[in-house]
């Protein structure tokens, strides 16, 4: 969406977006740098450099693009949630922080309750001036993960667990119909035995994104959280979850009141999960998949995996 001539017929709306965008480019909150936070600062600078070299700045955000940004007005926090990057636990923490004492222990909140829409407010629910005010003054943070580890984690969680029937029906049946030659009728109907290779074929098929946006579990962080337009104060990493989460809680001024739950049940990978799954993917598809997730690698300083055979 751009403020081109035709679009500007409604000048008023255009002005609003102009204001929104100009505010997005303001200076981020200055952090006082404890030694442990210096690496966080470095990450943010690297992100800004990567944005400068790899994106064109003509993009404009609308409130609709801010659905993943969770707001805590009490502590002036904005958290962009990325599925498969400890987001259940972050949502639990934010529920504790915004609950006025109703919850005190994040782990006492059932995982499914943390994901109920409406339990937490998102930035997209606010008016444009309210959005601007929050983006300008709140502590904004995001947690990211090595893109292919995240992708494999999403695949395992959504397609290899028998209880995830909603995903099997919604995506599995379609993937099998399109990408499996000669499927069994049962597989076609249930969609519960999608292979990683079939999942990869689905992701890189141009029809997939033409028909609808990726599901948030495999959508790129770049598209979910707009890290080149929104200046996140902290870029936390799943690989260093505990210290990074602690740094956020410290900056939010709630370090003493609660602990980030790091031992919750989740699809843990050991940092080599992706290598095992990619062994069975041809160089042709590896290359296509890498191009698809390239921005997430670049923006968050993840190096090209050594197991890839893309040359
Ligand atoms: C980026 O990644 C490299 C290699 O892993 C690392 O040495 C460097 O410290 C990272 N830079 C930042 C700013 O995190």
TrEMBL record:
GO MF annotation terms: sulfotransferase activity
GO cellular component: Golgi membrane
InterPro entries: Carb_sulfotrans_8-10, Sulfotransferase
Subcellular location(s) of the protein: Golgi apparatus membrane
Protein's GO biological process: carbohydrate biosynthetic process; proteoglycan biosynthetic process
Annotated EC: 2.8.2.-
Annotated membrane topology: Single-pass type II membrane protein
Regions that span the bilayer: 7-25
A Pfam family per the record: Sulfotransfer_2
Keyword annotations from UniProtKB, A to Z: Carbohydrate metabolism, Glycoprotein, Golgi apparatus, Membrane, Signal-anchor, Transferase, Transmembrane, Transmembrane helix
Record family assignment: Belongs to the sulfotransferase 2 family.
Protein name: Carbohydrate sulfotransferase
Classification of source organism: Eukaryota, Metazoa, Chordata, Craniata, Vertebrata
